[in-house]
């Protein structure tokens, strides 16, 4: 199985190094000739969980240098979502007849790519494996996580099993028969835990100490959940139940709701949001594939998504340097919710 990994950053570099060391036929695509040349000179080194590996001789080129004569059975997209959206239409031509592209970004990217390029070319996947890039070529694996992959249409196919078997020689890969449900369950958490933490520069545990934080979390999560259910998603249990007790409006279940929130905090509450790290580095975030994706689908299916729209707008403003992440952001968002509710009731 010929494999191309596109995007040799934290995840791509970690997976690539482990794959090369196990003898998988892996070639690498970097953003341009300069970054490819730098990687060729440095090789790849991974430390941390899973043990140390080095790959000194690597087959790497700029993504644009792949073309005629190159054919891959799997193209693993390990760039940020916005770069993957741009690059996928170019690399689809590098697929062998039965080949597939495997995007591993959070959120709506895989579905968007499947709609544009065909479900026969795109698998779904996301990563619970955490890694950081110390510098190009040097990576640290942060946990013993896995890739979860599957067919976007559901079920388990021979091609998914084949990809899982191949990549599973390098890192842990699990197959889901309800990958779209799993993607959405993670997306609900990304929309609320990751993005809200980024907006107010806090962990979930910290922002849930305030009434404003609790209110905004609930509204954000429930809007996204309403969209997921409206488009017919069968949500998959990941770390916690995706549907809170009492949903949609059984007030008697309030104390069960509180326990559910505690379970979410216990699992996700102390993680520094990756989106906050992007904002701190002045990088573009993946907001359009997270809350922005929910907003697009909410508008298309007639589900109110005001909070997610406000959040998406704020993140864009922070990206442009007009605003900064701050704790007060949560109060502003909570006030907006009240204003809107008051406005609606008049
Ligand atoms: N890291 C994690 O622990 C983790 C966990 C779960 C999910 N994810 C998701 O996985 C994806 C990748 O994350 P990451 O942390 O590995 O990001 P990253 O460290 O920023 O790596 C992305 C890499 O893609 C390269 N790239 C950008 N455009 C490219 C192009 N057109 N052709 C080839 N390479 C290109 C970037 O190069 P430049 O440096 O030149 O831009 C960078 O090396 C994201 O969607 C992220 O949300 C990551």
Protein architecture, described:
By secondary structure, the protein is α/β, with parallel strands linked by helices. Helices cover 47% and strands 16% of the residues. It contains 13 helices and twelve strands. It has helices at 10-21, 33-42, 81-91, 109-117, 158-167, 179-200, 204-207, 211-230, 254-268, 274-280, 291-301, 306-319, 328-345, and strands at 3-6, 26-30, 44-48, 53-55, 60-62, 72-77, 95-103, 124-127, 131-135, 138-141, 147-150, 173-175. Strands 5-2-1-6-7 form a five-stranded parallel β-sheet, with helices on both faces. The protein has a four-stranded mixed β-sheet with strand order 4-3-10-9, covered by helices on one side. A hairpin with a 4-residue loop joins β3 (44-48) and β4. The radius of gyration is 21 Å and the shape is globular. Residues 341-346 have low confidence and may be disordered. Bound molecules: NADP nicotinamide-adenine-dinucleotide phosphate (NAP). NADP nicotinamide-adenine-dinucleotide phosphate binds at residues 6-12, 29-31, 35, 63, 78-81, 83, 87, 104-106, 127, 130-131, 133, 274, 286. The site of NADP nicotinamide-adenine-dinucleotide phosphate has 27 residues, from α1, β2, α3 and β9.
Strand-helix topology:
Elements: E1 3-6, H1 10-21, E2 26-30, H2 33-42, E3 44-48, E4 53-55, E5 60-62, E6 72-77, H3 81-91, E7 95-103, H4 109-117, E8 124-127, E9 131-135, E10 138-141, E11 147-150, H5 158-167, E12 173-175, H6 179-200, H7 204-207, H8 211-230, H9 254-268, H10 274-280, H11 291-301, H12 306-319, H13 328-345
Helix pairs in contact: 3-4, 6-8, 6-10, 6-12, 8-11, 8-13, 11-12
The structure holds NADP nicotinamide-adenine-dinucleotide phosphate (NAP).
Residues 6-12, 29-31, 35, 63, 78-81, 83, 87, 104-106, 127, 130-131, 133, 274, 286 line the site of NADP nicotinamide-adenine-dinucleotide phosphate.
């Amino acid at each position: 199985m010929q494999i191309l990994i596109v995007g040799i950053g934290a995840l791509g570099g970690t997976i690539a190094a482990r794959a090369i060391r196990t003898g998988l036929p892996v070639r690498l695509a970097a953003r341009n000739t300069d970054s490819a040349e730098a990687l060729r000179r440095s090789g790849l080194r991974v430390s941390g969980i899973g043990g140390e590996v080095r790959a000194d001789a690597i087959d790497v080129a700029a993504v644009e240098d792949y073309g005629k004569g190159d054919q891959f059975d799997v193209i693993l997209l390990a760039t940020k979502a916005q770069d993957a959206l741009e690059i996928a239409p170019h690399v689809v031509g590098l697929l062998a007849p039965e080949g597939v592209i495997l995007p591993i970004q959070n959120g709506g990217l895989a579905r968007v790519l499947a709609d544009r390029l065909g479900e026969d070319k795109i698998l779904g996947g996301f990563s619970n494996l955490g890694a950081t890039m110390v510098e190009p070529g040097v990576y640290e694996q942060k946990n013993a996580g896995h890739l979860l992959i599957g067919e976007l249409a559901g079920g388990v196919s021979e091609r998914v099993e084949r990809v899982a078997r191949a990549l599973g020689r390098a890192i842990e890969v699990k197959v889901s028969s309800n990958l779209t449900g799993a993607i959405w369950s993670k997306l609900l958490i990304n929309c609320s835990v990751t993005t809200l933490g980024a907006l107010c520069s806090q962990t979930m545990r910290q922002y849930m100490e305030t009434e404003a934080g609790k209110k905004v979390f609930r509204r954000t999560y429930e809007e996204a959940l309403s969209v997921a259910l409206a488009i017919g998603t069968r949500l998959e249990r990941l770390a916690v139940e995706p549907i809170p007790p009492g949903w949609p409006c059984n007030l008697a279940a309030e104390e069960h709701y509180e326990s559910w929130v505690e379970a979410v905090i216990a699992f996700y509450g102390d993680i520094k949001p990756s989106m906050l790290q992007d904002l701190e580095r002045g990088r573009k975030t993946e907001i359009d594939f997270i809350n922005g994706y929910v907003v697009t689908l909410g508008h298309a299916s007639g589900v109110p998504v005001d909070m997610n729209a406000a959040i998406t707008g704020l993140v864009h403003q922070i990206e442009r340097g007009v605003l900064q992440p701050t704790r007060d952001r949560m109060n502003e968002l909570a006030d907006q919710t009240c204003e809107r509710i008051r406005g609606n009731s008049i």
